[in-house]
Design a protein that fits this description.
With 384 residues, the chain is an alpha/beta fold. The chain has one domain: FAD/NAD(P)-binding domain. Helices cover 37% and strands 27% of the residues. It has twelve helices and 18 strands. It has helices at 10-21, 46-54, 58-64, 88-94, 103-114, 159-165, 234-241, 247-255, 297-314, 319-348, 353-363, 369-380, and strands at 2-6, 25-29, 41-44, 70-75, 81-86, 99-102, 119-120, 125-130, 135-139, 144-147, 149-152, 171-184, 194-200, 203-210, 214-222, 262-269, 276-277, 280-282. The strands form four sheets. The chain has a seven-stranded mixed sheet with strand order 5-4-13-14-15-12-16, sandwiched between helices. The protein has a six-stranded mixed sheet with strand order 7-2-1-11-18-17, sandwiched between helices. The protein has a three-stranded antiparallel sheet with strand order 8-9-10, with helices on one face. Helix 1 packs parallel to helix 9 and helix 4 (88-94) packs parallel to helix 12 (369-380). The radius of gyration is 21 Å and the shape is globular. 47% of the residues are buried.
């Protein structure tokens, strides 16, 4: 049996590895001429880590993951700690560690494991045909690829999604802009093994440790869409938006490299329930584009890859039947993740100022139990 995967991102590469491990001939086709990560880093929570372990990457993910032993929220103006607690109770409850990871290293790890010789670049999908027994993908360079099934892991602007749904979908602007990048760890900004977040004014500044003694940092600011800003203006923009914030935030702004800082307007897509059509299945952002507010976008794509491969292996009534069962297994889960992230987004970024102020106040009385319970619920909803 042969699978064609459209998209060489985290979801596509994970699906390629999972199907290959189960004996499928698998090829990945990617639109760009050079695979580059979108964003500086990503938080791989234990449900995602367990998926990577399932793919045979337990040693590799530990090697590139950061040591995140605790979590803290701090006041934006004074820098005072509102709450701080260890993450070990979460680890003990869910059975695995979280690993914040540089995206470039994660992407390289996945593609190396899959085998770069079976990843075909500069292959922009322009046509898709499913004749009931095989699927053929046509690319802009005139070439084609045929397989027993096709997986659309081609991201939030998915071409495959249009085939599956029969129409385009609109992205929804979530109301804020995110700046992110990597910087050398400086304990004058935050402890080296802690996820630290400064909150106030509907904004946040967050740092997570990744391997190589680096922080993954991100700044969130509620803003209108379409502002004319770029890397050239990053430091000036951040200084303006975070005027009056505490010394560690100012130090981070001074130390970051503006030309290596990404600026992203955050969107999601309204959840939908059709993830498959015939021998074609959607996976990752193509199936459930979410905001990053609960850190589950990449993890959900890895979950998709595991569930899809298990469904194909466990059921013998044909590819289309197995894909329908994959859809049944995933729709409720991915819908809940999109909506949870949206709800958290709105509270964090001041959509309802009263709710946001109440959240800030609750942090002063937070022991960690409430936050960790919510995280555990999300993590334990995964397939492993």
């Amino acid at each position: 049996m042969k699978a064609i995967v459209i998209g060489a991102g985290m979801g596509g590469a994970s699906a390629g590895i999972a199907l290959r491990n189960f004996g499928w001939q698998t090829e990945i086709y990617e639109a760009v001429a050079q695979v580059k990560p979108v964003g500086a880093a990503i938080s791989i929570w234990p449900n995602g880590v367990k998926c990577l372990n399932f793919l045979g990457l337990q040693r590799q993910i530990k090697a590139i993951g950061g040591d995140m032993a605790s979590m803290a929220y701090q006041d934006y103006q004074s820098g005072q700690i509102l709450t701080r607690f260890p993450l070990r109770p979460l680890v003990d409850r869910v059975g695995e560690f979280p690993y914040p990871t540089a995206r470039a290293e994660l992407q390289s790890m996945l593609l190396d494991e899959f085998g770069r010789g079976r990843v075909f670049l500069n292959k922009r999908l322009i046509q898709l045909e499913d004749n009931g027994s095989q699927v053929t993908a046509g690319f802009a360079d005139g070439s084609t690829a045929t397989g027993d099934l096709l997986i659309g892991a081609d991201g939030t602007h998915s071409m495959v999604r249009r085939h599956v749904l029969g129409h385009d979908v609109k992205r929804r602007y979530a109301g804020y802009v995110n700046w992110n990048g990597l910087v050398e760890i400086d304990e004058a900004i935050a402890p080296a093994n802690q996820w630290t977040t400064f909150v106030g004014q509907g904004k946040r500044v967050s740092l997570m440790p990744v391997a190589g003694r680096r922080f993954y940092y991100f700044f969130d600011v509620p803003l209108p869409t379409g502002l004319k800003q770029s890397r050239d203006t990053s430091r000036k923009d951040l200084k303006r938006y975070f005027t009056g914030w505490c010394a560690p935030v100012q130090r981070l702004i001074e130390q970051l490299d503006p030309m290596a800082t990404n600026r992203v307007e955050i969107h999601d897509i309204e959840p939908f329930s059709t993830l498959v059509r015939g021998r074609v299945a959607l996976l990752g952002d193509a199936a459930h584009s979410t905001t990053p507010d609960i850190g589950q976008g990449g993890c959900a794509a890895m979950e998709d890859a595991v569930v899809l491969s298990l469904s194909l292996r466990a059921h013998s009534l044909g590819v289309e039947d197995a894909l329908r069962r994959y859809q049944e297994s995933r729709v409720e889960r991915v819908t809940s993740l999109v909506l949870k992230a949206r709800k958290r987004c709105d509270v964090t970024h001041g959509k309802d100022p009263l709710a946001t102020r109440q959240w800030y106040h609750s942090l002063e009385h937070e022991t960690g139990e409430h936050i960790l319970n919510g995280m555990a619920e999300t993590i334990l909803g995964g397939p492993l």
